Amino acid sequence: MNAHDRRLPVAAGAMMVWIAVSPWAWGFAGSRSAVANHVFIVLTFGPLSAMIAVLRPAALATLAGGAWLLISPWVLGYALPHWAWIDEAITGVLLIALTASAAGVDVAGRLRRRRRQEPASSRSLESVS
Questions:
Q1: What is each CA distance from 103 to 44, 72, 98, in whole angstroms?
Q2: pLDDT by residue (tens digit) across 39-73?
Q3: Which of 50, 74, 84, 128 is most buried (CB neighbours < 10 A)?
Q4: What is the dihedral sign for C-alpha 4, 108, 89, 67?
Q5: Which tens digits make up the pLDDT trace of 8-35?
Q6: Which structural domain range is residue 85 located in?
Q7: Domains of the chain: total
Q8: How far is CA 111 from CA 96, 119, 125, in A?
Q9: Which residues, 6 or more positions from 95, have their beta carbon under 8 angstroms from its beta carbon?
Q10: Which residues contact 16 (CB under 8 A, 6 or more apart)?
Q11: How distant is the alpha carbon of residue 52 from its chain centre?
């Protein structure tokens, strides 16, 4: 396991701590649905976040948790204070990016590879005809 892989669970754990305290830090803990959502996320995805570097399914499941965190203020109805949805959006996107990296999902790299392959494939078609 390289240094990057060793840092992934630590970063994910730090994000889980932030998710646990953010309703109180940002002042939207008055919403029961927000607090329940954060408790659910921490208890469900917190243990999985410790395994994201070694188990790809754990990383993918935690990625889904980040996606849920991103949309949850609107689904659960606590997006009214703007700092609540801003916090959830930033934290959700960071969790998605972190777990996508752990899962080996490299969207930018795939796009670069496709762009490199397209001219090569079009050149091979030209040489055939």
A1: 18, 23, 9
A2: 999 999 999 988 888 888 999 999 999 999 999 99
A3: 84
A4: negative
A5: 888 999 999 999 999 999 989 999 999 9
A6: 3-128
A7: 1
A8: 18, 13, 21
A9: 12, 15, 62, 63, 65, 66, 69
A10: 41, 42, 45, 46, 49
A11: 11
- In this prediction, residue 102 carries a pLDDT of 87
Six token digits for residue 71: 């949309």
Q: What letter represents residue 8's amino acid?
A: L
For tokens 């969790």, the residue is 95
Distance CA 89, CA 71 (A): 8
| Token duo for residue 55 | 């188990």
Contacts by 14-23, CB closer than 8 A, 24 or more apart:
15/49, 15/91, 15/94, 15/95, 15/98, 16/41, 16/42, 16/45, 16/46, 16/49, 18/91, 19/69, 19/91, 22/87, 22/91, 23/84
Token representation of residue 91: 């934290």
3-state secondary structure the chain: CCHHHHHHHHHHHHHHHHHHHHHHHCCCCCCHHHHHHHHHHHHHHHHHHCCCCCCHHHHHHHHHHHHHHHHHHHHHCCCCCHHHHHHHHHHHHHHHHHHHHHHCCCHHHHHHHHHHHHHHHHHHHHHHC
